[in-house]
Amino acid sequence: MKIKFQIIPEENLIVHKLTGDFDIDCYTQYSKTLVQCPEWNTVDKMLSDIRGLNTNNVPKCLDLMAKLRREVYKRDYLNVLLVDTPISTAHSHIYKNCLQSDKFRYKYCSTLQHALATLDLDVSEKQAEEQLLNLKHEFVFSEE
What we know:
Blueprint: E1 2-8, E2 13-21, H1 24-34, E3 45-49, E4 53-54, H2 62-73, E5 78-82, H3 86-98, E6 105-109, H4 112-118, H5 125-133, E7 137-139
């Protein structure tokens, strides 16, 4: 799985793009690394672009993903998942339902325009697509 990301402090936003086959070990390591960034404490919005992510492994990982959300990410923020297939939409919906009792804020959108509006970001769709293509950081998973 490949993860590119960027924290945009002036928007209190983190943008990350996940591609390839979903890998819970990689995602766990990424999550633990991300929350160590000093800027993490200012984030109140997250755009998770999962277009191009094969989510077939997600159902068997839902409990661990929910545990990561509760125990690693912890903070309240609005996470908008950008989806592009019926299966990624279904998996996003199931994940959102797993966390419903925790009152975490999750939305999923099938268009970037809707995701930007949901996050209340004043940026054009073209600018956002360009930014998604040029995220500053790439997480490198190390199998220990």
